[in-house]
Amino acid sequence: MSEELVAESDAPVTPDRIADDLRALGVETDDTLFVHSSLSALGWVPGRAQGAVEGLRRAVSEGTIVVPTHSTDLSDPSEWENPPVPEPWYGPIRAATPAYRPDATPTRGMGAIADCLRSYDDAVRSAHPLYSVAALGPDADRITNDHPLEDGMGPESPLATVRNLGGRVLMFGCDWGRNTSLHLAEQLADIDAGRVEAGAPITVDGRREWVTFTEPDYDDSDFAACGEAFVEARPEDTATGTVGNADAVLFDQPSLLEFATEWLEVNR
C-alpha cells in the first residue's frame, strides 16, 4: 500500500469495516455475489487483497462469492493491441505459452482482489482459458463446472448460472466497462454481434495443445451509457454507497440483464 493511500484514509479499512459497509449497502449473508473490484480504491487495507477477501467472506458468510479471473494474455498474439507484438513472434508465442491451469494461471487486468480469491484453497475456478471465473461458497462447483470454449461470457457460461441463481453484482472502485454481465446481455440481445476466431493453450488428454475456436466479437464501448441508464431506470433494483473509500453499486443481475438486453437492441 502506498504512502498516498495512508494519507487518503482516515483509518485502516479493516475486514470488519468492509463487511459492515457491505451489509449497509444491502449485501445479504446468503447472496450469490459477482464482484468487480479495485483494491486501491478501498483505502489502506490491512493484509491488502487478503484483507479485502476476508471482508467479503464475512459479509457473505453463507453465500457464494464469484469473481472474474480472466487470463487474456493466453489469447492469440495476432489479436494483441496493448501492446502488439511483431508478427514473427506469433508462432513462437503460440508454441511456447504454457497451457491454462485453473490452479496456477494468473489473472490479467482483474485486480488484486480477484487474483487473491482465486488462490484460496477452497476456491474453484472454471476451465475457460481466457474468461474463467473463480468462486467461493456452497454454489461454487455449480457455477464453475461447465464453461464451454465457445461461450466464454454467454448463455452457457458461469455468468448465466449466476443469473439462474438470482445473483447480484457488486462493483466498487471500477466502472461499467468492467461489468462482464453486460457481455452476457450482448449475447442475449437480438443484435448482430458477429463472431471472431480465437485461440489459447489448454491441456487435452494430458498434453498441451494450442486450440482454436470462435467467440463473440465483444464490445464494451457503450457499457457506461447502458449502466447509467439502468441505474436511473431501475432504482428499486440498485443500491449505491461506499465500501471503505470506494464508491460502490449493488444490483440485481437478472434485472440488469433484462434491461440491458432491451437497451442494446434499441441503441446498437
Automatic annotation (TrEMBL):
Pfam families for this protein: Antibiotic_NAT (PF02522)
GO biological process: response to antibiotic
Entry superkingdom: Archaea
Keywords: Acyltransferase, Transferase
GO molecular function: N-acetyltransferase activity
Keyword Transferase assigned: yes
SUPFAM superfamilies: TTHA0583/YokD-like
Similarity section: Belongs to the antibiotic N-acetyltransferase family.
Entry protein name: Aminoglycoside N(3)-acetyltransferase
Organism: Halosegnis rubeus
Source species taxonomy: Archaea, Methanobacteriati, Methanobacteriota, Stenosarchaea group, Halobacteria
